[in-house]
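Hi U.,

Before I forget, here's the chain from the pilot set. I'm dumping it here mostly so it's searchable later in email.
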Amino acid sequence: MENKTFLETLNELIEKKDVMGVREHLKDMHAADIAPILEQEPAEEAAIFFRFLTKDKAAHVFSYLSVPRALDLVSLFTTSQTAAIFDGLYVDDAVDLLEEMPANVVRAVLQTSTPQKREQLNRFLKYKDQSAGSVMGAEFIQIFPFMTVREAIDEIRHEKRLLDSFSEVYVTSKDLKLIGVLSVRELLSAEDSQNIVDVMHDHVISVSTDTDQEDALDVIQRYDFSALPVTDSEQRIVGIITADDALDISEQAASEDFQIMAAISPNDKEYFDTSVWDMAKSRLPWLFFLMLSGMLNGVILGSFEHAFLAMPILVTFIPMLTDTGGNTGSQSSTLIIRGLATGDINISDAPKVLWKEFRVAICVGFVLGFFSFLRVTMAPPFDPVVGIVVGLAVMVIVLFSKLLGGILPLAAEKLGLDPALMAAPLITTIIDASGLIVFFLLAKAILQL
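Structure:
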């Protein structure tokens, strides 16, 4: 009911064209809470709403809108209104939106932007996708080494917008080469007469614009940074990756891994923003490949036809054996993929991973194999020899699947592939085929089929 009352009051103020009333009504409301309301309103009414906001508030709210809603509103805005909103956005937020917009809208925004903003947007749009340059923000607090602490404080005092968001101050030469860093707290704690060069930290950890964004995320996590400077090929600072950016990178990386692990081509669009055809295209290639791979099982079964014709009961154990192999392999691969993603496991750890998975497989395989032996011996078909075959097959399949689930993600990492490729669907397909071969070879040898 609160939301309804809020909207009713807001709509009344808008109908009265009470600009100050609307602004006062929204004064204490965060842009992240206003945006979802505008997502539900008709586009025409949402577009009118933006006329009542200050430039900064309008840009802030706009940055939280979904891309489809942002596109709807841009089509309803005047050219000057669009330019004003994009001028108020942080450069990285503006670039994210421009990358999703039609070419004519991008041209219009660039043509109406200030020369400085246009230069920044053009530069950011050229950075390689998934690079540190493509996700960094262009705003940061900059001072010079020849300043005193008092001069530096006076210099940044008027940067209220930046001080609200950033806690680091970057020391650069006149040509923007990064030479030092210190926190705002350290700056305020220093004596007014001290020189910046004496209080700054001259060992600055940074990444370049072409560094992979996930590698930049690793640096932020390793050093527990709130912001990471990004430099160009000449060591000039061109932007920073903030903790907010790091969260976005982490969420995107996790989403991509989940999609790959589910045998879906990565797609950065939201579920309801993705068309049926695009969704089908992202799923079909892997499903087609896995279906063809699954046909291999039919070939294997055909080659051992004489074995299960001689003892049909063997066929009833196939689902249990393949499911067990797939499940145990998926457990191992999931843990290794996660370990590689967090940095807990490295490629050099392959021997240790195999040794650990081998010991786990022995424990798990013995328990599952012994239980399978008891099941076949104490229930139909009440045959201890078949029980030995099934029990041994379970142990061998568990051992093989655990080792395979451990080594394949490491092999993918070594080859420069995404370890998530070696997740459940692919592991299951490989183990299904190998499990059938193991089972029927054991059956032939022990049962003399």
